[in-house]
Every structure is written in C-alpha cells, then in structure tokens.
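pasting for the record
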Amino acid sequence: MGIVKNQSIKNSLFFYTGIAFGAFSTIILYPNVFNVYPEHLGLLQVIVAYSTMISAFSLLGTPKTLIRFFPRVKNQNQLISLSFLIPSIGFLLVLVLYFLFKHNFLDFIKPNSDDLDELKTFSLLKLNFHLVFFLVAFISFFEVFCSLSYSILNSTFPIFLKEIFLKGMNVILLFLHWFNYIDFPTFLKLYIALYLGMTIFLSINVFRKYTYKLTFSFNEIQSKELVVYGLYVLAGGASAILVSKVDMVMIGKLIGYKEVAFYTVAYFIGNVVRVPARAIGSICMPLVARAWGNDDLVAIKDIYVKSAINQLILGGLIFLGVWLNIDDALSLFPAKFQGGRLVVFFIAFSQLFNVSTGVNGLIIANSKYYRFDLYSNFMLLCFTLFTNFIFIPSTSPLAAYDIVGINGAAFATLLSVFFFNTIKMMFMYWKMGIQPFSIKTLYTVFLLSIIYYLSFYIPVTENVYFNFLWRSFCVLLLFIPAMYLLNLSKDINQVILDITKKIIK
C-alpha cells in the first residue's frame, strides 16, 4: 500500500504538470507559432490522429491483455514475448495493407478543398506519410512497455514520460520552430522522434527492474482465452480511439487542415471542464472494483450518485469560468484563431453533461455487463460518423445558425456525448436499477443558472486580464458559500472545512 500511495502522489503531480504543459502549448504557443501557417498545426494533429487510430489496430488488444493476464500466468516470459510478437505482426499487417492500397487511401483522405495552401499541405502529408508508420511503431511498443511497467507496479515512470517528457519537450520544439531555428518538416520529424525516445527510456527502465528472457515457446499460455479477450479489447478499444480522433480526421478531409488547427485550440479550452472528472475517476476506480468484488450494489449506487454530484459541481464551476471569460480569452489570440467561440461552448457543455452522469463507464466496465462497453462504443462510433458527415459540410441543415464546419463538428460531439451517456444511463437503470441524479442535482443546476444570470451584472473594465480574475473571483464568491450552505456535496464541504481549519491555524 505504501508503494501505491507513493506512486499515486507522484502520478498526480506529473498529471497536473502535464495539464499545465498542455495548456501552455495549446493556448499560448500553438496560435502564435502556427499563426502564419495554421495548416501545419492541422497537419500535425491529423498525423497524430492517424497514427493513434492505426496503432489501435496494430496492437491487437495487447496492452490490456498483458495487464490482465500478467499476474495469472506461471511463465511470464512467455506472455511478455507474445506481447511483443503480436504487435509486430499487427504492424506488419497494417503496413502491407497500406502499400497494397496506398493510392486509394491517399486519394480518400485528400481534403475537399481547392485552396492552394491546403493542397501544398496535403502534398507535404503525402511526402511524409511514412512518418505515420514510424509513429505507429513507436506508439505501439511504448504502450506495450507501459503495460509491462504497470504490471510490475511501476506506473510512475511511464506517466512521467507521457506527461512531463513528451509535453515538456514539445514546448521546447515549439519555441525552436517559432524562432526559426528549425523548419516545420524538421519539427515534425523531431516531434515523432520524441516517441522513439520515450520507448527507449521506458524499455531501459523496465528491464533494469525486471529480468526478462526472450522465448518463442508459448506452451504454458492459455492461447484461446488470450485471443478471445484480446479481440474483445481490440474491438472496444479501437472504437473508443476512433471516436476520440474521428472529428480531427473528418475536419481535415471535409474542410481542410487550417480548420483542424482552429478546432484543436478551441476544443482544448472547452475540454478543461472534464479535468476534475479524471481525478475523481482515478479515485473511484479501486472503490468500484472492490464493491463489485463484494457484489455490493448499495455501495455502487452510493459511488455513482456521489461521483455524479461532485463532478457536476466542479465541472459546472469550470464551465462558468470558461464560458463567462471566453470573449476576453479569445481576444488575446491571433485573429485567425478567434473564431472558435461556438466550438468552446458545444465542447464545454457536452463535457458538463458527460461529467454530470458520474463514473458510469467504470461501473459498467467492472461489472458482469462489461461487454456492453463494446456495443455502446460501436454505436457511439456510428453515431459520431453520421453526425459529423451531416454537420461539418457546407450543406449542414443548421448552416443558417452557423452550425457548420468546426462548429458543426463540435455540435456533432455534443450530440454524440448526449447519446452515449443516455444509452449508458438507461442500460444501468434497466440492469442494475440505479441512476446518478438526485434532488441535489436540480439544486446544483439551479444554482449554476442563477450565478450565470447574476454574472452579467458584474462590472468589468477594458483590461481583459483584470476582467478574467475579477469575474472568476466574483463567481467563486457567489458559488462556494451557496454550495456549502445547501450541502450539495458532503465530500466537497469536508474539503472546504479542512482547508478553512488549516488557514485559521
């Protein structure tokens, strides 16, 4: 338990530092570094999106399979060897498929644009598409090493590499490109090389702590069980990854790489609403697993309801902070990046609804109904593809309301999140008789609405920095005492009480 506690503290520190690096890169550096050529940022995001999606298939479900079966098998060397062999085969398969259908694939992903800059960028993508497969290989083996590291109870170093090394080095590369020390093709190659560096560093770290012997004998492995589980994980995981990246790819295809750049920055701002939920989810994960282990549905319901209200309160507070300050925030961006207001709203609102439904995914994944994750992710993928095809093109039925292009993509995400979470809530109520909402949910929504209305009476100045701080302070001053007096969350109230006692002392 001491190891777990120590690593949890370090992981939390790395995680929040990574968020800071990500925010600095996306909100400050991206709009300035890529102001002249925003399509280059779009190209970077599309390359990462393609690489992530392809790696999901080349891995063939290996990382989660390794974690699941590592403590169960007698000959762990056989399992580890197999975990390196399978992604190698998977990588060769996708590589062969690419070269067989290379021209068809490149014609398919070509942007539907006659803009000269877009065509030049696509030519750059064609010229450097081999980098995608380098990145696929690096991502795939890094994920295998991550799983092995987690299996030997060493989660700190992989998280350090992903949150500190990768994001910190990205900041350095962005500065080098900004000040013309490196051109964009060099930046692209060095960015991909970071994944190679992470893979090498992690492999050294793992094999310093674990004695491994390569073997090509797998006689002690229950291959049928591994294959069945791996295929399930592949299908579910691939669907989830496709959903997370499909908007970037479709924006690049349907309206161009410049729009991907603008969408990237606005999406990040809106998505900060979800940050507290990630921390709460990591806390709830072992509690949910333990409750299901004891078949304690009462405890499951308690976790479900508490996580929902806690995430709604924290997410709602961040939503207010983001949306009330969005005009001031966007005014600080270069002119090209100031058009993402609706994107921010749709993404922020979708995540507010997402977090308000609690840890429904964790509960389902740890239950006997875990296969529903596969079905629901597949339904989500189909729905996401459909809504993006409807709302991104200029023919969007809501084009008159400016719900088209990147706004349409964000609106499609909003609809998808509502659809996905509604399906999961209905399933959980049908199978388990539980749902995440209570009377406190209504009180919280009402309180957030009142404060939003009152915020329009907060006096502001022409200084956007002062406005941001002053408006945020006023919202906190109105929200926190009201939330405490209404006792919306015992957990959050206890945190406030503990902090108050420490300040007084």
